Amino acid sequence: MNILVINCGSSSLKFQLIDAETEKQIAKGLCERIGIDGSQIVYQPAGGEKEETVTPMPDHTKAIELVLNALMNEKTGVVKSLDEIGAVGHRIVHGGEKFASSTIITDEVIEAIRACNDLAPLHNPANLIGIDACKKLMPDTPMVGVFDTAFHQTMPQHAYLYGLPYEYYEKYKVRRYGFHGTSHSYVSKRAAEILGKKYEDMKIIVCHLGNGASISAVENGRCVDTSMGLTPLEGLIMGTRSGDIDPAIIEFIAHKENKTIDEVMTILNKKSGVLGLSDNLSSDFRDLEKSYVAGEERGLRTILAFSYRVAKYIGAYAAAMNGVDAICFTAGVGENNPLVRKHVCEHLGYLGMTLDEEKNQVRGEDREISTPDSKVKALVVPTNEELAIARETFALVK
Ligand code: AMP
Fold this sequence. Notes:
Layout: E1 2-8, E2 13-19, E3 24-32, E4 40-45, E5 51-54, H1 60-72, E6 87-92, E7 103-104, H2 107-114, H3 124-137, E8 143-147, H4 157-160, H5 166-172, H6 181-195, E9 203-209, E10 213-219, E11 222-226, H7 248-256, H8 261-270, H9 273-277, H10 285-293, H11 297-320, E12 326-330, H12 331-336, H13 338-345, E13 367-368, E14 377-380, H14 385-397
Parallel strand pairs: 1-6, 6-8, 9-12, 12-14
Antiparallel strand pairs: 1-2, 2-3, 3-4, 4-5, 7-8, 9-10, 10-11, 13-14
Helix pairs in contact: 1-3, 7-8, 10-11, 11-13
The structure holds adenosine monophosphate.
């Protein structure tokens, strides 16, 4: 069965068509600038040329229509008709406490996702628009929602509660939810496979280090803690997000710079992280690494601060699980940046972890990067959120 995986943002839409039986990607692409001048669709059949077409896309329904036309195109398409798409898997950012696993999308589910809009005002409405557009164009095709928050719903209360008046949890469900759950789940399972161990017997820490970055503790196949919180702003230093800060800084900066809370929040989300720390050099680790290698102070301080925060969380999560068997690096930076991995692992000798410097040079493929005698294993495990969504979807509709 072919599964269409849709990841819908407010002005963009990423898609992949995956054969669920062979787990092979058949085609992939991206619609950009939906509802904005200059929108374009990028489409690439597996093993074929990438096509970029600038074409008006006033809304997401038009974008999905163009995606389906590209998939069915006579020359470069990969299916003959919509009947060859068995189901659609939608990435949904926030499922609140309602969704602890993926689910078939029904009208009630749509309403329950809408009820979580408050918790993810930028993301959930866009996800719902994607669902709505697919419903219009493929009314008879089953759809599944796969939630970024679901994997983390197994966290115990002591890990998800904040030190705030309890009534805020009761009234508004203010608590830690965590994100990137599909990736944390996929990578932790894959790590057990690579090591030939039983997933249910392992203590695994997953470092998802991309433009957004989060870390999780997975004990016996269940998430017991994660660094992102009510929103994806908490935790590690990210591309442009600050991660953990003293909450009093918000008021302090608002007074000093004469800004509103909203303006300071925009700075914390869009102008902070490694971009802000590097004095606006870049949010991209390739640029930061160049600066580090050139001996510039801003590259050095940024890479060291980023890596130190990751190491600090690894220590916390080793404590949370009273031990750790494997530490996994994934996503853009985790998979491709040996320098960051080296600086993280420099702090982990006390755990009995020894990095193999040569193996650590790997980029973008599964690899154990610790020495054979290392008590705690370190691994690079490329994430594949689309495949994980296709698997979840297939499991529910087959
Ligand atoms: P993501 O959000 O997972 O796409 O990760 C984006 C980050 O990964 C950016 O900071 C990139 O610099 C980094 N990244 C992606 N590919 C590479 C690569 N081949 N080499 C080094 N860094 C990379």
